[in-house]
Amino acid sequence: MPLTVKAIEKAKPKDKLYRIADAHGLCLEVPPSGSKRWRYRYRFSGRAKMVSLGVWPEVKLSDARDKRDELRRLLKQGIDPAEHKKSQQAIAEGKDRFEAVAREWFEKFHKNWAEQTGIRKIGRLESHVFPVIGGISIEQVDAPQIRRVLLRLESFGKLHTGHRVKNIIGEVMRYAVAMGLITHNPVPDLAGVLPPVKEQHRAGITDPEGIKGLLRSIDEYQGSPVTRNAMKLAALTFVRPGELRHAEWAEIDFEKKEWRISAEKMKMKRQHIVPLSEQAISVLKEMEVVTGHGRYVFPSERSRDRAMSNNTVNAALRRMGYTKEEMTGHGFRSMASTNLNEMGFHPDQIERQLAHVEGNKVRAAYNHAEYLPERKKMMQVWADYLDELKGRM
């Protein structure tokens, strides 16, 4: 029998919570405290569920029935009223923004991924996605909005990163569908927005498995320890081969953890600061015992007064079984650049660390230490990533 106002007023609290049914799932809940609350009970996907509709008498009987009827209409459309309510609350609190949903997704799932996988995914979102669509309600993030993100990356020459970012956005949008925030994931509609990545054979190893094998081969290298450590430092600092060969002890500052290469040695004729990770410091400390009394960190085997030959590292790589089409001394730079971009580090920081010339003359006039704090952090993350790869079975 449907409820009446008189019946509601007469309902008194008992020792245990009890409910009085109205009709079509609506009921009045009376706990021992004496407050009276409206509840809507229903089944969704075979499960019994319940939604709160407010407190009586603030919510009148007629209002409670109107709310119930609205939720019944959602059920007929295949929408879970409880999830719909959560999404409405999220919108009211600003939690429906793409960035907020993406960070919620990340927090929920990143513990299931390898550490570096998580770093790369959140890094790509923070660098390439949040600045463009992060503040937009996820309901408004449609195919044209996502296309804008992807075409922007393509225009920067980051086609590979564009494909990765597309996949990550797709994961976030699938999560939003599952949580009832949206009803359609637009990412599959963009299947042809980016051209496929053309496989380009470069003399540099960039895939994680290949890097792991290279690092282990360097550790096991049976030639000169000076050459072995030169390759280790090349992987950690990705300086040009000529800069590596001509490294001098006078340029190394162990206290500041910096390697300052003079302008005359640099291709772009500007002093270059290389932040040294803990791993790079360790390599240099090992070399200090062997060559620290001389000028060069990596001297020639024939004369300590001369720098290492320009073919020494390449010859070692050939001896380790890598052809010139697979890996060269210069390949450590593409190895680092490709992976740091995929990790989501700012392109300007990476380019500065690679000591590339700045096309904008105003920006080129900036101090040579530009982005130094960020680059120090980046170089340590890179070194830790190499250690993780090397130790991965």
> Quick one: CATH superfamily of the largest domain?
Intergrase catalytic core
Main sheet characteristics? 4 strands, antiparallel
Q: Count of helices?
A: 16
The helix/strand series, from N terminus to C terminus, equals HEEEEHHHHHHHHHEEEHHHHHH
| CATH topology description of the largest domain | hpI Integrase, Chain A
What portion of residues is helical?
A: 40-55%
Average of pLDDT = 86
Number of DSSP-assigned strands: 7
| CATH arch. level architecture of the largest domain | Orthogonal Bundle
Task: Give the helix/strand layout.
Elements: H1 5-10, E1 18-21, E2 26-30, E3 36-44, E4 47-56, H2 61-76, H3 81-92, H4 98-109, H5 115-133, H6 143-155, H7 159-178, H8 208-219, H9 225-237, H10 241-245, E5 252-253, E6 258-261, E7 272-275, H11 278-291, H12 312-319, H13 331-343, H14 347-353, H15 361-364, H16 372-391
Antiparallel strand pairs: 1-2, 2-3, 3-4, 5-6, 6-7
Helix pairs in contact: 4-5, 4-7, 5-6, 5-7, 6-7, 8-16, 9-11, 14-16
Domain Core-binding (CB): 96-177
Family: Belongs to the 'phage' integrase family.
Domain Tyr recombinase: 201-379
